[in-house]
Specification:
Largest sheet: 8 strands, mixed
CATH superfamily of the domain at 4-69 and 103-177 and 272-354: FAD/NAD(P)-binding domain
Distance between the termini: 25 Å
CATH topology of the domain at 4-69 and 103-177 and 272-354: FAD/NAD(P)-binding domain
Oligomer: single chain
Shape: globular
CATH class of the domain at 4-69 and 103-177 and 272-354: Alpha Beta
Structural class: alpha/beta
Helix content: 25-40%
Number of strands: 25
């Protein structure tokens, strides 16, 4: 007996993205979360450009652009002296191929609220106060036991339940990595009196300590962050407003700034962990359940969102009996290397910004921070963390000829004429939805669209494009076919219509 096709454990950004992906494909699912209520904590506070493209496909990107901000100057102090104002998000402007070029700042609870609203439009919701107590699986289903005594039968189960994942533990997936016993951080959301509300602030002290306040767009709160070393005040204490206020005054010398009305106070260790596998039979893990990142770069939450985007269309095809089981194996093979790379990037960022080791603090203060005043350097940083360069070139799902845009690359946007209406449009408008998109540049192949429609129906849309901006962007000559996956990556680049048909056949069950 199967109650639902997919059980999603965890109602954060990863679980919500996956739920929206499944809902728009007609897959039955439930989303459960052990929390008794929706949280109001800032946590991950930035949406990277690639995640904005995911949300464009889900139809909610404008909600994020309206709720957040892409301009937040960082005012840097050293030894209590103001030294620089860094405009890290400035200088990046939309391009034809990259409509969302920079990070958008907003607290995580607002991200989740936007995604829950979209999920509700698609007919789904998150069930609160339901904790997974255990699971067992057979060749054709997963049986999940909840702490309430309820038993849920599902074809597949996905753990999006964070670093302490009950799903990962129950599935027996190892989670090696580093958990520092010496590097700790105090983090929380507070309101602040005494600072202008048009930027964020960082203070570095001579003893290598640091403290920061980041304004949370659309709220009255700021995210407070502070490094604590062994033996220092706060290292072994429970976080409190009084402790935050005292340490802030000690490190900044600003006794005129008042912290008040806290809505979240926490303490955590530096962690870098990566699961050995993202799949155990019919159980998958995604987001923090699969990889835990340092906070620098705002990459952890975004990587989880893109995990869900990768997994969603594959699960849907498997549930509908349209794809072989091997398609699900490509989730781990594509996403685990990405998580590994992100861990290196975020770990290096954390070391650069917050290390208390004398050599690193000297490099940061004398070389790195002065360089960050350069527009060219900030553009390079944005490019590195944007996740637009993530690719699956080595995947078995990426086949065909090399070119300006290669199989496995992100499929870039471009202005175009809508192939049906002739109205001004863009490629992202053609891609939007749960289907494959076949772009054909040059002469029409008679009967191709009809043949693919007969075989695959709504799973594929075929668009013939005349020479113009898209062909230049893709470096596509006359007769080139570019097949774009449902998650916006190039699957096939070829000059053979038969090669496209053969590829789609490999993703199908005869």
């Amino acid at each position: 007996m199967t109650d639902v096709d997919v059980l999603i454990v965890g109602g954060g950004p990863t679980g919500l993205t996956l739920a929206c992906e499944l809902a728009r494909r007609g897959v039955t699912f439930r989303v459960i979360d052990r929390s008794p209520e929706f949280h109001h904590q800032s946590r991950g506070k930035g949406i990277q450009p690639r995640s904005l493209e995911v949300f464009d496909d889900l139809g909610v990107v404008q909600n994020f652009l309206d709720a957040g901000t892409a301009e937040m100057p960082a005012r840097i102090h050293m030894d209590r002296r103001f030294v620089a104002e860094l405009h890290l998000l400035a200088g990046a402007h939309p391009r034809p191929d990259v409509p969302y070029p920079t990070l958008v700042l907003l607290p995580q609870w607002r991200t989740e609220r936007i995604l829950r609203a979209r999920l509700a439009e698609l007919g789904g919701h998150v069930e609160l106060g339901l904790r997974l107590a255990g699971l067992e699986q057979s060749d054709n289903q997963v049986v999940a036991h909840l702490a309430t005594g309820e038993v849920i039968h599902a074809s597949y189960l996905v753990g999006c339940d964070g670093g302490g994942s009950a799903v990962r533990e129950a599935a027996g997936l190892a989670f090696p990595g580093l958990v520092s016993e010496t590097e700790h951080y105090l983090l929380g959301d507070v309101e602040v009196d005494g600072l202008p509300r048009d930027g964020s602030y960082v203070w570095y002290a001579a003893d290598e300590s640091s403290v920061g306040l980041a304004l949370l767009p659309g709220t009255q709160s700021w995210q407070f962050g502070l490094t604590v070393r062994p033996g220092e005040e706060g290292a072994g204490q429970e976080p409190s407003l009084e402790l935050f206020q005292r340490l802030f005054a000690q490190r900044t010398g600003r006794t005129d700034v008042r912290l008040h009305n806290p809505t979240w106070l926490s303490r955590f260790s530096y962690k870098v962990r990566l699961a050995d596998h993202f799949r155990a039979g019919r159980v998958f893990i995604a987001g923090d359940a699969a990889h835990v990142h340092p906070i620098a770069g705002g990459l952890g939450m975004n990587t989880g969102i893109q995990d869900a985007y990768n997994l969603g269309w594959k699960l849907a095809r498997a549930v509908r009996g349209q794809a072989p089981d091997s398609l699900l194996d490509t989730y781990e093979r594509e996403r685990r290397p990405v998580a590994e790379s992100v861990l290196r990037t975020s770990g290096a960022g954390m070391t650069t910004l917050f290390s208390t080791k004398p050599l690193m603090t000297c490099l940061r203060d004398r070389i790195i921070l002065p360089l960050m005043r350069s527009t060219a350097v900030t553009k390079a940083i944005i490019s590195k963390t944007s996740q637009l360069s993530v690719n699956y070139r080595d995947s078995e799902l990426s086949v065909g000829d090399k070119g300006k845009v290669r199989p496995g690359d992100r499929a870039p946007d471009s202005p175009c004429r809508h192939p049906v209406t002739g109205e001004p449009s863009r490629l992202f408008d053609l891609f939007r939805g749960p289907h494959f998109t076949l772009l054909h540049f040059g002469a029409v192949v008679p009967g191709l669209a009809e043949r693919l429609d007969a075989l695959h129906g709504d799973d594929i849309r075929v668009h013939h494009l005349e020479p113009g901006p898209p062909s230049k962007r893709y470096g596509a000559g006359k007769g080139t076919f570019v097949l774009v996956r449902p998650d916006g990556y190039v699957a096939v680049r070829t000059r053979s219509a038969d090669a496209v048909a053969d590829y789609l056949r490999t993703l199908s069950v005869a």
